[in-house]
Amino acid sequence: MLTPPITSRDHVTGNQQGSTEIVEYGDFQCPYCGEAFGVVRDMLQALSNIKFVFRHFPLAESHEYAMDAALAAEAAARQQQFWQMHDALYLHQQELSDALFPELAKQLQLNLEQFKEDMQDNLLVSKVEADFESGIRSGVNGTPTFFINGKRFNGDYRNLLSAVRH
């Protein structure tokens, strides 16, 4: 089961009042999460009843830029651009580097100085760590991991759309 349930601290897109809630625990550097990104995007376009939440689960021991990518998304969130940065990070997944994060912030027309300061903010580190810890409590041990209406989806992420439809 998903622990904790969706709250106001989560990043939500899609239909805010959607009857189907999907939570992804993801890592911006995980190649499977990169593939799932396209599946989720297609699902959100195909179905109008989806409330989609992304929670960070950076596998920092195996993905050098996973934590910094999560911090970049959170720094962008402070300027109301979480989902734009989320998408940009996945679209540029093969190029993740310290130099890429401010470049993406510039492309999104973020306040660059604020973005750089926020990337260093321990409150954002705590937010990412809280997402990770909630994943551990929910039984997440790899990425991507999805929950549909609070229950773990154990199928292949490529079958997510058909699972939601049934």
TrEMBL record:
Domain of life: Bacteria
Gene3D superfamilies tied to this protein: Glutaredoxin
Record domain Thioredoxin-like fold: where: 9-155
Transmembrane spans: none
SUPFAM superfamilies (alphabetical): Thioredoxin-like
Similarity comment: Belongs to the thioredoxin family. DsbA subfamily.
Name this polypeptide is given: Thioredoxin domain-containing protein
